[in-house]
From TrEMBL:
<dbReference type="GO" id="GO:0051015">
    <property type="term" value="F:actin filament binding"/>
</dbReference>
<dbReference type="GO" id="GO:0005737">
    <property type="term" value="C:cytoplasm"/>
</dbReference>
<comment type="similarity">
    <text>Belongs to the vinculin/alpha-catenin family.</text>
</comment>
<dbReference type="GO" id="GO:0045296">
    <property type="term" value="F:cadherin binding"/>
</dbReference>
<feature type="signal peptide">
    <location>
        <begin position="1"/>
        <end position="19"/>
    </location>
</feature>
<dbReference type="InterPro" id="IPR030045">
    <property type="entry name" value="CTNNAL1"/>
</dbReference>
<protein>
    <recommendedName>
        <fullName>Alpha-catulin</fullName>
    </recommendedName>
</protein>
<dbReference type="GO" id="GO:0007155">
    <property type="term" value="P:cell adhesion"/>
</dbReference>
<dbReference type="InterPro" id="IPR001033">
    <property type="entry name" value="Alpha_catenin"/>
</dbReference>
<keyword id="KW-0963">Cytoplasm</keyword>
<dbReference type="Pfam" id="PF01044">
    <property type="entry name" value="Vinculin"/>
</dbReference>
<keyword id="KW-0732">Signal</keyword>
<dbReference type="InterPro" id="IPR006077">
    <property type="entry name" value="Vinculin/catenin"/>
</dbReference>
<dbReference type="GO" id="GO:0007266">
    <property type="term" value="P:Rho protein signal transduction"/>
</dbReference>
<dbReference type="InterPro" id="IPR036723">
    <property type="entry name" value="Alpha-catenin/vinculin-like_sf"/>
</dbReference>
């Protein structure tokens, strides 16, 4: 019976391993299909060809999203789950960016800034696809063995653990080990003290606590040596007091660093919540004012650097590995999207009458604003962990939120069947693409106020707004809004007679 049980267990294990390999192969195959279509999209020369290939690309991305979403839910390692969520978020947002950036490049083929903008999107999508494969296959296909940099939080945790273990065994660690850990920890605080954005008062406070940590560690070392010299078998009272003081000062250092990082992030979110640089950039680009675009681009670049550094500081105090990964994702996102916004606004400034260039800029600005919202949620998570309020598990910050066109990854709650969800996601993509096609054709009309032009724009806008309503997104919030949109706003004949679609029309 024991032999039979072992054989059964072995057979079940083989089946599970085989099933896992099949899932991995499906994801890899799906990724390869997406990469091939991406290459075709990058080489298209006409808008008609782009529309055809992008429709295929959308279907493949929907399939890839379902496969990776299921895999993400099955992952047990929280770090891998966070990395997968970050990679899928990049693909989700970049799909829309790829649409508008490619359209802009096709509309203005000789514009260098449009080409730079498009190339950056394609590059980021390929990196995200590669990251997904690295996670599911547990490999480093590009030779990049990404190891998270040591955070101050981890250093503090390891240091306290080493100090407290002296209570149980005075001979557990060599003296040099604890002193070395302390010096390495103090050295990492230079990310805070060397920052040009850290105030003089904050810098002095951090340095003061670091000095206190050194003093308490030295006193601990002295008491430790005395206890060992006396051949003590357990921690003496002097050692116990020194341990308590050292742990207290190291906890004070964590509190001070947390206060600085979270305080700076909160201040930045308040300032950036007004979106003044983005508004100024949009206005300057629409006016074709290249000098103003250059000036406000410098302002945005400075804000980007502040946000990137703040994400780095939050990484040090985040308190958990999944949140550390989310901090790195936020840092990379700000670092990439900042220059993309600038290249998009440069294109608009060179072609101020281009609706496609304007739409493209809007998409990148929305991605920036979305990342600011993610940063606010991240801040709340970090505070919760610091204060010991973990509560119910929240969804990963990089998953889709209302207010975005989630072509591939949105959870369609109006349907319970996965096949129906896939169909609706594909229809949403096609609808968005057709709306873009309408906008492109409309730009060719010399008389922009012509009735046909206005009606086609209204119909396209109405259809897409209704689609967003079915997903709980967009400007329409209630059923009454939906009926009002259908009966009054977009379908009214410009000459003021009956709505289009009336039985006698």
């Amino acid at each position: 019976m024991v032999k039979a049980a072992r054989l059964l267990l072995s057979s079940v294990t083989k089946v599970l391993v085989l099933a896992d390999r099949i899932v991995i192969k499906q994801i890899v195959t799906s990724r390869n299909k997406v990469l091939v279509t991406l290459d075709h999209l990058e080489r298209v020369s006409t808008f008609q060809e782009f529309v055809q290939i992008f429709s295929q690309f959308g279907n493949e991305m929907v399939e890839f999203a379902h496969l990776t979403g299921d895999r993400q839910n099955d992952l047990k390692d929280e770090k891998k789950k966070a990395r997968m969520a970050a990679a899928r978020a990049v693909l989700e947002k970049c799909t829309m960016m790829l649409l508008t950036a490619s359209k802009t490049c096709l509309r203005h083929p000789d514009c260098e800034s449009a080409r730079i903008n498009k190339d950056a999107v394609f590059h980021r999508m390929r990196c995200a696809l590669e990251q997904v494969i690295e996670i599911v296959t547990e490999s480093r296909s590009c030779g990049e063995n990404k190891i998270l940099p040591a955070s101050i939080y981890d250093g503090i945790k390891d240091f306290k653990s080493g100090v407290e273990c002296l209570r149980e065994n005075l001979y557990a660690l060599p003296l040099q080990s604890v002193s070395g850990q302390m010096e390495a920890l103090v050295e990492r605080t230079e990310d805070f003290t060397d920052s040009p954005y850290t105030s003089h008062e904050q810098r002095q406070a951090i340095l003061g606590v670091c000095q206190l940590v050194r003093q308490d560690t030295e006193q601990l070392a002295h008491a430790w040596v005395e206890a060992q010299s006396a051949h003590a078998k357990e921690a003496t009272e002097q050692v116990e007091v020194a341990i308590l003081k050292t742990c207290q000062s190291i906890s004070e250092l964590r509190r001070e660093l947390h206060k600085v990082a979270v305080g700076r992030a909160s201040d930045l979110l308040k300032v950036h919540g007004e979106q003044l640089p983005l508004r100024a950039l949009k206005a300057a680009g629409a006016e074709g004012n290249l000098e103003a675009v250059a000036e406000f681009s410098r302002t945005l670049t400075e804000q980007k650097e502040q946000l990137v550094e703040t994400c780095r500081l939050l990484y040090h105090v985040s308190g958990s590995e999944p949140l550390e990964i989310t901090c790195i994702h936020a840092e990379e996102t700000f670092h990439v999207i900042g220059p993309q916004i600038i290249s998009a606004v440069q294109t608009l400034a060179l072609h101020p009458s281009s609706k496609i260039a304007k739409e493209n800029l809007e998409v990148f600005c929305e991605a920036w604003e979305s990342q600011l919202c993610d940063m606010a949620l991240l801040l709340r998570e970090i505070n919760d962990i610091f204060e010991g309020r973990r509560g119910d598990k929240r969804p990963y910050l990089s998953l889709p939120r209302p207010g975005y066109i989630h072509i591939c990854f949105v959870s369609l709650t109006i349907c319970g069947c996965e096949q129906e969800q896939t169909s609706i996601a594909k229809l949403g993509l096609e609808l968005r693409l057709l709306s873009s096609d309408v906008d492109t054709e409309v730009e060719k009309w010399e008389e922009q106020e012509h009735d046909v032009v206005r009606q086609s724009q209204s119909l396209a806008s109405m259809a897409y707004n209704m689609h967003l309503f079915t997903r709980g997104e967009g400007l329409l919030k209630t059923t009454l809004d939906l009926f009002h949109q259908a009966e009054v706003r977009p379908l009214i004949n410009p000459k003021g007679s009956r709505p289009l679609g009336h039985s006698s029309d």
